[in-house]
Amino acid sequence: MRECILAVVLAGGKGARLEPLTRDRAKPAVPFGGSYRIIDFTLSNCLNSNIRKMLLLTQYKAISLDRHINMGWSRYFCREMGEFADVVPPQQRIDENWYQGTADAVYQNIYSIEKEQPDHVVILAGDHIYKMNYRRMIDSHLENDADLTIGVLPVAIDRARGQFGVMEIDSNQRVIGFEEKPKNPRTIPGNDDLCMASMGIYVFRSRFLFEELCRDATRPGSRHDFGCDIIPSIIDRNRVFAFPFMDENRKTDAYWRDVGTLDAYYDANMDLVGVDPLLNLYDEEWPIYTYHPNLPPAKFVFDEGGRTGHAIDSIVCPGTILSGGEVKRSIIGNRVRINSYASVEDSIIFSRVNIGRNVRIHRAIIDKGVSIPSGMEIGFDPDLDRTRGFYVTENGVTVIAKNERRHFLNVDQMELVGSM
Predict the structure, then answer these.
(1) Which alpha helices (H) appear in 228-325, and where do they start and end?
(2) Is pLDDT above 70 for 166?
(3) Which of 5-19, 92-106, 226-240, 361-375 has the lowest mean pLDDT?
(4) What SS3 class is residue 19?
(5) What is the DSSP string of 63-97?
(6) What is the DSSP letter of 295?
């Protein structure tokens, strides 16, 4: 009989470094690549790995994520066959506080996990972009008779410093040392440029997990975090192994992205419009699932009077109308209206955005429901954008928040275009 596997997806992060995109939604619910949400990649990995029991632990600003899961993911599971992807808000069965750390989030949901009687629990983050077959990691976990297996990948020292849990591994892939976000990471033997970093992916023997969570909950001074507390406390007395990341993206370089900052998010999206993107969204062997609304195809308007709606090196989602506007190297979401003589370059436009006539947009991220007045320029003058109240990143990307209206009201000689 095959082992019973339960996936627990940590999907409650604030995503503070993605403000203002996370002003009204959790980080896993942030749109990515036009049609997707960030969490779709982790959930698609589960589905493609034939893991069909999932608990999604939410916390902050969860309504957008909850709606997305209910509308887009419930159809992939058969409840009568014991399959589910359930959104679980904080139950406060054990503690009246919000989750104190990653381990505490799982600990406070022990009742829901035990109810499924899993043999092993896969703990995943819901805010990374990658493709991975978790079954291979589970098989390695079983072969090693491990208490815990940790997904790992080589990371450059400068990138890992203060950002990743870093471990030492022996020749049998057993973990013999672990530091959470060290300032001076230990390098891989024979390579002073790389270290072995934790991906935040764990496979636990379920009974062992429950025992360690209960022990950690009563430990004075614990931060109740897997990387800070639980892993360092068990590597000397338990069987803890590493599993090197095996990429299902099938490109020359392994693809794993933490789009935790606005610039990292922008760069990962912009890669998708290249001729040969690092992330393959068109792979039929490892599809990325999501919720697709019932919308008409995108429409490009051509008029003999000089209006030509066209897009080059871009992703254009359903329901969008290019009414004589020009789009280059950009991602255009659902139900966007780009009016005559407008220009959008190197930008990410979320759904239900209305771009007025003669508008020029360059290197910008525009969230849902924004209407840009006719003739306005965005992304050309960072200082001007800041005075308007827009956020400008370190790399000069202008970001306009969801449903933004107030910063357009004082634009000289411009009337706010009605929202769609």
Answers:
(1) 231-234, 262-271
(2) yes
(3) 92-106
(4) coil
(5) HHHHHHHHHHTGGG--GGGT-EEEEE----SS-SS
(6) -
